[in-house]
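Hi U.,

Before I forget, here's the chain from the pilot set. I'm dumping it here mostly so it's searchable later in email.
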Amino acid sequence: MLGVLLGSLLIASTYPTKESVQYGTPAIQKVAGENYTAYILYPKKGLPISTQFLKETIPKLVEKSAPNAKLYAYSIPELPEGSVITGYGIKVTNDGRVDIFITATRSGAPILPDRIRSELFEWSKRAPKFKPDVIPREKVGVLEGWEVKTVDSNGNVKVYTGESEPYWHNFGRQRLRYDAPPYGKFYAEFYMWGLWKDNDPRTETFACTKDRSGHGIYRITPGILLKRQGISGYGDYRIRKIKIVHDWGINPALNGHLDDMGPIGVINRYQTVPVSVGPVSYSLAVGGYKVYGDSIDPPAVWTINTLGTGGMYTETSEHAVGIMVASSGEVLERALHDGNWHAVIRIKLSGEFSDNEYALPIGIHKEWTALTWYVKVG
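Structure:
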């Protein structure tokens, strides 16, 4: 492995205070692995990383690491006002696929650069693993007896007929860990896929799921459990509600639409239902809470309510609540293939907390984190 430190820039405001946040350009360390390049970004002098810096820097690192790739991708976190990014790691393979790991915290919590660097560096030394292509069970393409014509800006006409042999291609794992004391901890892990060779010139189809081996989760751990485990900075906060949103309409230029989602409808406590979206099929079991899945094109929305009958807290509200939901979406192919970076999907995980042990609708605090996934077709 090779380590290279890159330069530093200006500092903007102040940290940590409630009024404003001072950002510093992070240290950037390059780690050269076999068939991949990793970059880890961590704070200098305890100063967090700005979202704007990541937006300006990460796309350049991705393209530089895979100059011959046909498709590039990366993701950028979003946080509530005052919350900050403390670390960013990205592994880029020669064909442009990525594995991403991001850490963040609420404003005012201490930032430990040495610990963050050590964690990211150990992560960077493990080569990214991608799942094999998946052949969809349903037929894809132009219906028998029909044809689709396209005309490009030069007047060239292409005619598409018949069904094709498409496959789901795995673009890699995205991970975001957000510590939100005193309320709780957030964790999101999911995998992005693309449907290749679908013989449809109008749209490109992507999916946001777990992987085929079962890895992937959206999880919130309440402050009350962390406090009982002796983790400082957390209070007696219980989970009232969790919401997960997959927004395929984040970029109006792509005219994104929700294609499929799972689960959909209502899953009752201790019920198990089959979920089949894009390249994955799995059984989803819930315990101690209900899941509501709503198809609201272009976003897919899932809510989990941990309150029991009569509005009382259930035991679940004092424990980590996790679930893996999935969706697929379609965007305009001609817009995506214009050679620019485009936001394809925004994944948001939010939670409601309260330190009122009687579950009264007072003293409720809302916390959230999000990740936007970008694509550029080379």
